Amino acid sequence: MPDGAQPVLDVRDLKTVFKVRGGEVHAVNNVSFDLKPGELLGVVGESGSGKSVTMMSLLGLLPTPPADVQNGSVTFQGQDLLKVNPETLRSVRGGKIGFVFQDPMTSLNPVYNVGMQIMEPLRKHMGLSKSAARTRAKELLELVGIPDAERRLKDYPHQFSGGMRQRVMIAIALACDPQVLIADEPTTALDVTIQAQILELMKDLQDRLGMAVIWITHDLGVVAGIADRVLVMYGGQIVEQAPTRELFKNPQHPYTRALLKTVPSVRGQREDRLAIIEGQPPILGAQPTACPFRDRCDVAFDRCARENPARFIVGPAHDAACFYDANTGAPRDV
Prior knowledge:
The chain is an alpha/beta fold and 334 residues long. The protein contains eleven helices and 14 strands. α5 crosses α7 and α7 (162-174) packs parallel to α8. The mean pLDDT is 89.
């Protein structure tokens, strides 16, 4: 990833609200981040923190209603994806930005063989003939490590294992040589051995193809091994971002520190117990006017209940949304 490179994706002040019976759920609250060419960006947080909703908002993948993207901009190739017409957005989605969903069995169509499902974006976005698309589909299955690719093009999703189905989903996402690939917890439903294989595959493909990747996960152990930079999300907003090594070495937000304590250490003793984070993530019925983590935080003080902190610069390429300064062990003097 070249230093100072222009972002391939630039998100500013993204806000998404769900209109539900009895009110609203403010799922994404003024989220801003960018993605550099060739970068692997990890996005972590508990279920309900806004990770998936944020990324689906970028590409218009949320049902409307109930979802309503109320504010923000998503700049890709000089266009704001929140303002383009539906036809342009469809050409970007799947063609220039690929998306790998969490559960391949519900993402793949059970009544079509995998060859047809890989060929569809090739024919739609790249205009390939049926013969050329089939040849490319075979190459893609080989690229993602599925043996006997020619024969397996004729197979249906139920004839593949969970790990192989996820490889098929990756092949579909890569079909049109996207500049950006968004992977939404693609290894969650897989056993540890297959999970490691998919992680290794994705890192290898990223290195070979030079694409930028956003990897959504609740597992800090996963991003530790693959990500260049990490965003930590809580309560529908980014509470910390930093290069991966820096985040693990010097976490600044209380939520990040709490998450890290829940990760088992390979050097841990037999009698060590994993930490837990008491309580539940908030369901926000309005734009937050206080720190959303304050009720679960061990360093919260009066100001945390009155204001929602902005993201303070705490180091090179490192910021955290917290009024408490972890370096000094005292509230910030701002």
